[in-house]
């Protein structure tokens, strides 16, 4: 009997679902920790949030128009 079959015989469907959801949450937590440890990335995120608050945003169409006017597109 393989490990998958053994798990099916030991765990109920509800328990397998809970374990799967727990695994997903743990993966998300590890990814979050990885981002928070990256000082350059967290600074970039912080700068982006400041840009949003200050209204320094362009739609993709605005950006395309600007680049066309400047002859860069």
Describe the structure.
By secondary structure, the protein is an all-alpha fold. The chain has two domains: 1-37; 39-73, no CATH class. Helix content is 81%, strand content 0%. It has four helices and no strands. It is elongated and about 65 Å long.
Keywords:
mainly alpha; elongated; 73 residues; 4 helices; 2 domains
Topology at a glance:
Elements: H1 3-10, H2 13-37, H3 39-54, H4 60-69
Series of secondary-structure elements, N-terminal to C-terminal: HHHH
Quaternary state of the chains: single chain
What percentage of residues falls in helices of 4 or more residues? over 70%
Number of domains: 2
Number of continuous helical runs: 4
Poorly predicted residue ranges: none
- The whole-number mean of residue pLDDT values reads 91
- Helix/strand-derived category reads mainly alpha
| Largest sheet data | none
Strand content: under 5%
Shape: elongated
Counting DSSP E segments of at least 2 residues, the number of strands comes to 0
What's this entry about, in short?
The protein is an all-alpha fold.
């Amino acid at each position: 009997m393989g490990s998958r079959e053994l798990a099916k015989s030991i765990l109920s469907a509800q328990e397998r679902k809970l374990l799967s959801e727990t695994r997903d949450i743990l993966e998300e937590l590890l990814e979050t920790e990885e981002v928070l440890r990256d000082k350059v990335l967290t600074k970039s995120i912080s700068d982006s949030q400041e840009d949003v608050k200050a209204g320094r945003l362009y739609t993709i169409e605005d950006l395309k128009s600007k680049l066309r006017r400047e002859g860069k597109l």
